[in-house]
From TrEMBL:
This is Thiosulfate oxidation carrier complex protein SoxZ. InterPro entries: Ig-like_fold (IPR013783), Ig_E-set (IPR014756), SoxZ (IPR030995), SoxZ_dom (IPR014880). Residues 6-99 form the Sulphur oxidation protein SoxZ domain. It comes from Polynucleobacter antarcticus. It holds the Pfam family SoxZ.
Length: 102
């Protein structure tokens, strides 16, 4: 399981603004280590965000996404929405974090 994500959700005028900073090395599989061996690919492959149990965002990432990816999106919602963010990486590691919209 990876490091905790930093998730912030704020509501204004019926729209919830969600900002997510995911801590992950996001290795593309093209770099080499000091011995000259290729470092295997290891990256977040799927991302799911739910608000009160309903999907509000689904995404698929690939090896071209940079280390510690940041994501920002908005959806129609309200203060107090329980937001659950889950990612799964290419090694089937999984991380889930929750926040309540302020």
């Amino acid at each position: 399981m990876g490091d905790p994500m930093r998730v912030r959700a704020t509501e204004s005028g019926g729209t919830v603004d969600v900002k997510i900073l995911m801590k992950h090395d996001m290795e593309a599989g093209q770099r080499k280590d000091a011995a000259g061996k290729t470092i295997p690919a290891w990256f977040i492959s799927t991302l799911n965000v739910k608000a009160n149990g309903k999907d509000v965002f689904n995404g698929q990432f690939g090896p071209a996404v940079s280390k510690d990816p940041f994501l920002n999106f908005k959806y129609k919602g309200a203060k107090g929405d329980k937001i659950t963010v889950t990612w799964i990486d290419s090694k089937n590691d999984k991380r889930t974090d929750e926040v309540t919209a302020a």
